[in-house]
Amino acid sequence: MQKRSEEATSNRPGFLFDLDGTLVDSNYQHALAWKEALESIGFDIPTWKIHRRIGLSGSMLANELSRQTGITLTKDQSRAASEMHAASFNRRRDEVRVLPGAVVLLQQLTQLSVPWAIATSGTPEDARPSLQLLDIPDNSTVITAQDVTAAKPDPGIFLVAARRLGMSPQDCFVVGDAIWDILAARRAGALAVGLLTGGYSAAELTDAGAYRVLEDAEELRRSLDLTGVHSGIAAPGSHVADASVDNAP
Amino acid sequence: MQKRSEEATSNRPGFLFDLDGTLVDSNYQHALAWKEALESIGFDIPTWKIHRRIGLSGSMLANELSRQTGITLTKDQSRAASEMHAASFNRRRDEVRVLPGAVVLLQQLTQLSVPWAIATSGTPEDARPSLQLLDIPDNSTVITAQDVTAAKPDPGIFLVAARRLGMSPQDCFVVGDAIWDILAARRAGALAVGLLTGGYSAAELTDAGAYRVLEDAEELRRSLDLTGVHSGIAAPGSHVADASVDNAP
Question: What interface predicted TM-score (ipTM) does this complex get?
Answer without folding.
Answer: 0.88
